[in-house]
Amino acid sequence: MQVLSVASECVPLVKTGGLADVVGALPGALKAEGVDMAVLLPGYPAVMAGLGAGAQEVLAEEDLFGGPGRVLRGTGGGLDLMVLDAPHLFDRPGSPYLGADGRDWPDNAERYAALGWIAARIAAQGAAGWQPDILHLHDWQAGLAPVYLRGMEGGGHARTILTIHNIAFQGLTPANRLDALRLPSAVFHPEGVEYYGQISALKAGLVFADRLSTVSPTYATELTTPAFGMGLDGLLSARAADLSGILNGIDDAVWDPAADADLATRYKTPRGKAANRAALRAEFGLADAPGPLCVIVSRLTEQKGIDLVLDTLPSLLERGGQLALLGSGDAQYEEALRRAADANPGVAVRIGYDEALSHRVIAGGDAILVPSRFEPCGLTQLYGLRYGTIPLVARTGGLADTVIDANPAALRAGVATGVQFAPVNDDALAHAMSRLCDLFAEPAVWTKLQRNAMKQPVGWATAAAEYAALYRGLEQAS
Ligand code: ADP
Hints:
Blueprint: E1 2-6, H1 18-31, E2 36-42, H2 45-50, E3 56-61, E4 69-76, E5 79-85, H3 87-90, H4 108-125, E6 134-138, H5 145-150, E7 159-164, E8 172-174, E9 194-195, E10 198-200, H6 201-208, E11 211-214, H7 217-222, H8 226-229, H9 233-238, E12 243-245, H10 273-284, E13 293-300, H11 306-317, E14 322-329, H12 331-343, E15 347-351, H13 355-364, E16 367-370, H14 380-386, E17 390-394, H15 397-402, H16 408-413, E18 419-421, H17 426-440, H18 443-455, H19 461-477
Parallel strand pairs: 1-2, 1-6, 2-5, 6-7, 7-11, 11-12, 13-14, 13-16, 14-15, 16-17, 17-18
Antiparallel strand pairs: 3-4, 4-5, 8-10, 9-10
Helix pairs in contact: 10-13, 11-17
The structure holds adenosine-5'-diphosphate.
Adenosine-5'-diphosphate (ADP) binds near residues 21 and 380.
């Protein structure tokens, strides 16, 4: 089976969040399932640079939303790549989505419309003899592909699946861009691509893709409710039978405590934790402390509950706990975190994005905090599990699906792996921190939590089998 995965970012070439990890990991994981997956990416400078020598042009278009574009097929980052080389859209420095002023590029709608258009062309007509049976589309950036596919000759060949990694990003554009985006006016209505008077690329995908998925079973259910659906809950309820939740895995070769070359001390058991924690304290300028060293690796946004952590810090510090945070994002949170670090010797903060440091932070922490208001899947709690760094998480989305709360029954049964809290507010988080400190104060209980956590399978095998089954189901239905 041949599948073209279509996304705006992909590890190891370009990453701003968990989406990139998923897109980069799936092709390798799916090989074992007999799926041949290529990845279509925009030709940002980093992607063009990562494309190995010998890439071939397999498709060209003279006018691709304001300039010429062509598709290069080759390998890069260990992946079978199709790269949309369209300099007028993608040859820009910095973030894939934002200009130097920190705002979305004004032509983001056209940039990703071009990605969807080219995906549809490859699916409808093939590219140098390769034609996918399935288009696997990720998030709003690929959302228009199923609409384009319907209008193209050969468009019936491929089936489509759209995966929602985060419904907060919907790809909205004013309605007067309909023509510019090559969208027929017939699809601009509430049962089509219209979203409160605008065009939504995500909604287009949700309406027109054959199947939908998201990255955890709990988020799949949450998305059909007003509290989480962000205005698309009605549509998702109506399509609930087509919507699956498949939990992300993590790359367990990249996140492997036994082989992680970036760590000061390699370890296979929780016993190695002490050395990594000491190294992390030294690196962050933290003294020894009697309570748990809590860590966070995160985008600093409202979604991630950073304000809740700031509010409840005293309940951790009073118990002799500490916080070491690596993150970047909204200026208000960066500033507040810097102030908290200045005011408290038990708090240390690194503002920035640093992959290697993120490994040392997660390896050295006793616990990792993920108090997200919503979390489609979440990856850092999975890294935590693998490294014996006990996750303290909000009971939402994939966090609810991947952590077993250390309540009395789970402790008795010997299956607990972390701490969950709900609702997502200051009181509940403070209470959870206090529970975490209680657990940490009992070494036998804590060690058992660590061992359970480290035993939990967090690789891609399960997800790969589930995606492969989804693809096969789609193929059979066609
Ligand atoms: P999201 O995609 O919403 O940001 P996820 O938990 O799914 O959240 O994925 C976040 C990914 O980005 C993880 O791989 C995490 O380690 C990484 N990450 C986030 N912030 C940083 C940072 N400041 N430095 C290094 N890695 C980071």
